[in-house]
Amino acid sequence: MGKWSFARPLSAVSLVMVLALLLAGCGGGSKQTLNVFSWTDNFDEEVLKEFERQFDAKINYNTYSSNEELLAKLQAGDSQYDIIQPSDYMVATMIQLGLLEKLNKDNIPNAANIVPTFSAPPFDPTGEYSIVYTWGVTGIAYNKKYVTDVIDSWEDLWNPAYKGKVVLLDDPREVIGMALIKNGFSNSTQNPDELRKAVEDLKALVPNVLAFDTDNIKQKFIAEEVWIGTLWSGDAAFVQAENPDVEFVIPKEGATIWADTIAIPKGARNKELAEKFINYLFEPEVSAKNFESIGYGDPNEKARPYHSEEYLSNKTIFTSEEDLARTEWLTDVGDMLEEYDRYWTELTSGH
Amino acid sequence: MGRNVYRRAVAVYSAAILAVLHAPLVVLIAYSFNDSRINAAWSGFTWKWYVSLFGNERVLEALGNSLYIAAMSTVIAALLGVPAAVWLHRRRQRALWSGLFYLPQLMPDIFMGLALLILFSRLEIPLGKWTVIAAHVTFCIPVVVLFVLARLSGIGRELEEAAYDLGATPRQTFFRVTLPLLLPAIVSAMLLSFTMSLDDFVITFFVAGPESTTLPLYIYGLVKRGVSPEVNALSALMVAVTILLLAVAELVRRRGETPARAVQPKRKET
Q1: Torsion angles phi and psi, residue A57, rounded to 5
Q2: CA distances from residue B23 to A346, B29, B33 in whole angstroms, order as listed
Q3: pLDDT classification of A1: cutoffs 50, 70, 90
Q4: Phi then psi dihedrals of residue A44, to 5 deg
Q5: C-beta atoms of A235 and B126 within 8 A
Q6: Residues 6+ apart with CB under 8 A from A68
Q7: Angle at CA of residue A228, ends A227 and A232, nearest 5°
Q8: Residues 137..176 of B with a Cβ closer than 8 Å to A: which?
Q9: Are A138 and A178 in contact (CB under 8 A)?
Q10: Does A6 score more than 50 pLDDT?
Q11: Angle CA(A120)–CA(A122)–CA(A348) in degrees, nearest 5?
């Protein structure tokens, strides 16, 4: 073996390391960095790029898959994120744990563009910590090829004609909340009698249910495995794009609404840039482009003129004011949560 | 006759096991060529998901993170693991010491991830690319140590002793004799480490911070918005890369074994 037989690979390896270190070193430059921690596909790429250009900043977009994951990262200490997107109930938890910065609304004048319905939601009653970003409603989806009756009430899920073709979300608060609303109670009741009544009602529905499903529920509707069931409006819009026979309604008794918000975690390095980013996102033209691209309802009132006809007329993503008035947020039920979980186990144990 | 039947039964049985093992991957890869956006129905062959995958900036960024983290942790693991293995080889209580080295590899990932997260947060080390690399190094070192130790036992001490007899210093012996002989083991260990780093989800999940969303983390995040065939395409590519790297690692390892044997045909088994 020659003298160089080892020296060569060794120098190649060191060269790679040096290059890698150089690559790691540059890229930072003098630009400000905005560390965004959010759900996957939650922004339009062009919108992010335009922000980087306008504000001479670099956005690091990192993703998580559940609110609990986000919470765990923040609780581990110095997380370095500047922007986070917790869902409604998680905002309440984070405020309680002191994990959120108060937003300086002077830096976010566009916050005033949000529809009044969302300005002071129960999870952030003063609206100081979060701004509603994406939102949706849990309604009834049905395939009009098989379901020919008029669907306008939660009662319709109980129709024996749909036995074995009903699907429900795999989520205790959503499903029990639905039964509570059907019976005229709050979806977050802490009254044991109301809860028991709703669960008794659900027990009559369970034999008709094909599956409790959240992750694959869209496929079930698209492939027409199920005819009718509960579905989030965002998912319903997705299903309709694939299968135009699927209709979506917000029942007359009312429905549960949810939202992912935009907020700044405690100790953010770049709070000012983060506030500029939030303000930028709610500029009418920007939010019109952003929300059409990600396919959720735009909470920005001032953006209406910039939206396409097609988007504004899509009743599924763009719940009407009238329907919205009948919606209700899920709120913390305290110790009753154990009761909800116990009933849920009882309901789903056969499935 | 009876033996024939027995053989056939075994063959069918093995084929069934192989089918069960590989069916999910085959389905995953097949649907990456499906024209429809949903995985429910087959509606024609297409390459479009592979095309759109490479236009997706987030995917490319995650791929870049994954490759960078895998390359760095592999190189660092080799730089730390090779000297450790050489040292271990000379120790008397090798079993005990090497056990300590393998432990991180044998521990359930979730404990390692949690332990590392607690460690980093106690030491107030901000989570990011370097915490992920440090974590990956912990499970790559055992591989390097294992491979190099096996190789060291394989080549015996004769060649080193011959080098000393011919007047080489310990340093010369190490760099001119031992290290070249170890090279195949090091390269195959590095390739295996690389694939392990590329595939890791659980540990990365705990210690990732800004700028360290790797491909597995990205794919997991997609579940919320619905998994598109782009993800099938991405997974198919990862499977292909993993298989390729493992095959190369095995080839390098086998090649390395032959010359060592040829040099010392009368090696004593120890």
Answers
A1: -130, 165
A2: 35, 10, 16
A3: very low
A4: -80, 135
A5: no
A6: none
A7: 125
A8: 175-176
A9: yes
A10: no
A11: 145
Cα gap A126→A118, rounded to integer Å? 11
Asked whether the CA dihedral A14, A15, A16, A21 is positive or negative, the reply is: positive
CA-to-CA dists, residue B51 to A174, A223, B48, B123, B244, angstroms:
38, 26, 5, 44, 21
Please tell me the least confidently modeled range out of A142-156, B55-69, B148-162, B213-227: B213-227
- Which candidate from B37, B61, B75 shows the least CB-CB separation from A13? B75
Q: Which residues of B touch A65 (CB under 8 A)?
A: 220-221, 223-224
Backbone angles phi, psi at A98, to 5 degrees: 70, 35
Spatial contact of B31 and B39, defined as CB atoms under 8 Å apart? yes
The predicted model gives B15-25 an average pLDDT of 91
Residue-wise DSSP of A216-253? SHHHHHHTTS-SEEEEEHHHHHHHHHH-TTEEEE--TT
Cβ neighbours for B29, distance < 8 A, ≥ 6 positions apart: B232, B235, B236, B239
Taking CB atoms and an 8 Å limit, are A24 and B129 in contact across chains? yes
For A264-319, what is each residue's pLDDT tens digit?
999 899 999 999 999 999 999 999 999 998 888 899 999 999 999 988 888 888 88
Taking each helix axis from N to C terminus, what angle separates A284-294 and A271-281, rounded to the nearest 10 degrees? 80
Closest CA to B78 of A182, A17, A31: A17
> What backbone phi and psi angles, to 5 degrees, belong to B125?
-90, 120
Entry pTM: 0.78
Shortest Cα–Cα distance, B36 to chain A (Å): 9
In this prediction, residues B164-168 reach a mean pLDDT of 91
Chain A residue with Cα closest to B219: A40
CB contact under 8 A, B221 and A40: yes
pLDDT at A227: 96
Task: For tokens 């200490």, name the residue.
Answer: A77
